[in-house]
Amino acid sequence: MNLDKIIHSTTSTQEKTYAILHRHWFDLASRFILIVMFLIFITWCALYAAAYLNSTGDTQLIPVVYFLTSFLYLIAWIYSFFIWVDYFLDIWIVTSARVVNVEQKGFFARNTSELDYVHVQDVTSEIQGIIQTLFNYGDVYVQTAGAEGKFMFRHVARPEKIKTLVMHLNRQAISKRAHPNALIKEIQDHTDHHGPE
Fold it and tell me: Which residues does the chain have with pLDDT short of 70?
């Protein structure tokens, strides 16, 4: 998947992109560590079962053990691929005008939603536990007045900075709405410099 295509399809040419966020790398690594531990465990079980069957003379069951082990390997590989796809394709894009959430749901479904800053009511960041504190990652919750209710940045790096950025852009958006003359002047300045589009 081309990340540039997603960004350009969800943002206009006049928007500035401030951040493109994925979940923190430790979130991915911790899942892969569990998969590796599972593979080591089933390998040990398979070798032990094969040695036991060989010692008891039931060698006809050894191919069954290897087949089941190979089947579990295949399941672990598919699950690993799913974790990687989910990690790589879940994206939060913070622009000068809005927040875009691109969420991968399974292998063949994707949900894209966006939030204008004028609808933001509250922004909070949350870091829980020793691991998140050590690696400085956590969740950012954006409370909205719209139908979405709440936007959530899950397990992103530097959540406090993301919260500060979203709050700053929210204040800018509210200020522009409260002072439309400044926005009109900005549009006129853009037209003067670049000509009519």
Answer: 1-13, 146-149, 177-197
Residue reference for tokens 């709405």: 177
Q: 0.70 exceeded by the pTM?
A: no
105/164 same-domain check: yes
At which of 36, 59, 86 does a domain end? 86
Residues 6+ apart with CB under 8 A from 75: none
Calpha distance 44→32 (Å, rounded): 18
pLDDT value, residue 7: 47
Same domain, 115 and 136: yes
If asked whether residues 172 and 184 sit together in one domain, one would say yes
Domains of the chain: total: 2
